[in-house]
Amino acid sequence: MRFSLNVDHIATLRNSRGENQPDPITFALLAEQAGVDGIVVHLREDRRHINERDVRLLRELLTTKLDLEMAATDEIIKIACDVGPELATIVPERRQELTTEGGINVIDNISRLKDAINDLHKAEIEVSLFIEPSIEQIDASAEINSDFIEIHTGVFANAISEEEQFDELERIRIAVKHAKKLGLGVNAGHGLDYQNIKIFREISGIDEVSIGHAVIARAVFVGLNEAIREMIRLVK
Ligand code: PXP
User: Fold this and answer.
1) Please, which pLDDT band fits residue 84 given cuts at 50, 70 and 90?
2) Residue 210's pLDDT is what?
3) Per-residue pLDDT at 96 exceeds 80
4) What is the whole-number distance in angstroms between the Cα of residue 70 and the centre of ligand 1?
């Protein structure tokens, strides 16, 4: 299983002072040196953390891979096609949310997403759809030629009882198997941390996990290198 690091929080910290430190680009490059398999950023419509300059510089400087999280809007699709990340992960986006709150409903947005995938494919960008672990959503994703799905792991991560956690893990296990049968790549993320990853990694077939908050939070205490190395040890 590969591990990609989301660096949006570093940009949030930078923007809180309206100046240029800490720089998410420096952080991303150091994370690559520490061993991550890729960098993830979410270019939001309101630019609350990552901005266009960040995305373009990352494109130029990264030596692993760039996963651009984005809403399927005309403006962001245009930027994505111009920048050319290795992967575009389409997420639902609501202005008021603190972070992405759940998977996109592919079935209800099928024609818009199909057009978005076509546009991104024309620019030779692979596409992933961030969805709940639902068979219907996976079928719809395959139908419109998505290359990957990213399974929303928030319900698993927020489960209060062991039983609830186990049930959601089973749901994810079935979803991964189904997606693989349809030839989809499978990523996963949201709320994964140093504890729950120990259980989560038992699911086979997941190509990559995308983790942000837990690793950035730990890096504040132990430093970036140590935080990344610890997560790599748990994921691999
Ligand atoms: N995957 C997606 C699609 C996300 O929106 C996020 C949050 O930015 C993550 C993964 C990472 O979640 P977390 O910061 O909770 O690790």
Assistant:
1) very high
2) 98
3) no
4) 12
Paired tokens of 83: 């920048």
For residue 40, the SS3 value is: strand
Query: Active site includes 49?
Result: no
Question: What stretches of the chain show up as alpha helix (H) in DSSP?
Answer: 8-15, 24-34, 52-61, 74-83, 110-122, 135-143, 154-158, 162-181, 196-200, 213-222, 224-235
CATH topology for 2-235 is TIM Barrel (3.20.20)
pLDDT at 94: 77
The domain spans of the chain are 2-235
Q: Does the C-beta of 3 come closer than 6 Å to ligand 1?
A: no
- Note the pTM of the prediction, 2 decimals: 0.96
Residue 59's CB is within 10 A of a number of other CB atoms, namely 15
Instruction: Find the catalytic residue in 9, 42, 49, 152.
Output: 42
Q: What is the mean pLDDT of the chain?
A: 96
Catalytic residue (one of 9, 32, 49, 69)? 69
